[in-house]
Amino acid sequence: WVEVAQRQARYASSTSDYPAAIAAARDGIRLARAVHDPTSQALGHFQWGTAARHQGDYETARCQLEQGMALSRAAGMRQVEADCLRVLGILSLDQGDYDKAKTYYEESLRISCEEGDRRSESKTLNNLGNVFVYQGDWASARGYHEQALAVFRETGDRRSEGVLLGNLGMDASLQGDLHAARTYYEQSRLTSHEVGDRDSESRMLGNLGSVSGSLGDLAAARCFLEQALLLVREVGCPPEETTILHRLGLALALQGDYAAAGDYCGRSLLLARELGSRWCEANALGTLGVICDCVGDYSGARDHHEASLQIACSTGLRRLEGEGLANLGLLCHH
Q: What pTM did the predictor assign?
């Protein structure tokens, strides 16, 4: 029965049904305790923590993952330990602690390589690439992402391949190659749809919206982003909803609808603060500053840009730091 509960948790998580994944993981932990099976307990805590992270419940996620890590370490289950470390790294990345994220990832990668666990190794390579994205080192990010993609394809992991194609699209976008980015995002969206990964599919719809806006197709941008918002709310993933709300605000600002843009960015800001997502908070503040500037509210613009810059400087968000300084410089002309 323990194995049945674990399979149910895996399936529910793979289809982005996180409440069902948590319920099955809790059943698995209860059954494992009854038969004194610490290995299965550790896996159950990992499954619960991973699903809670997708729901934006970071406190529960961290608690469950730390329990899973402790149990797996005591039982000598190094693969489960590596997985717990990796998702703890994702949590730290979500909350803007990039040094801690990198430490978790490097420890997870070390264990995975020692154990010959190619699946976990590739996932952690991908995650390490994401740290470099946030820190503005896009060449390093692309190198890690390409290594991970090669392993995903070698092992036939289509779900992870879909996620990785999206990350390569992000690398291309940040390096200014928007047409390549759009191609990667569309490949990722199709792959994620084929394997039933609605969480990743919603992210790719959001990314397609952003790149369409950057390419000047504002109607397509809004269409993609509205599809993404509907899907992400259906899935129930507040961290991604924060990002989509912000991107919709950006698209509306480009169309000159500053009132609606401010409303979407304001909702993104509130949700980012509720979740403790410093990256999303800084992003929303910066865009609200631009909107204030566009409508002549220069005092409000300065306040928002300074708040965004403070977060960027304190958390090592180099790209946002540069944008904040540039926006404050433009305000000096008013």
A: 0.70
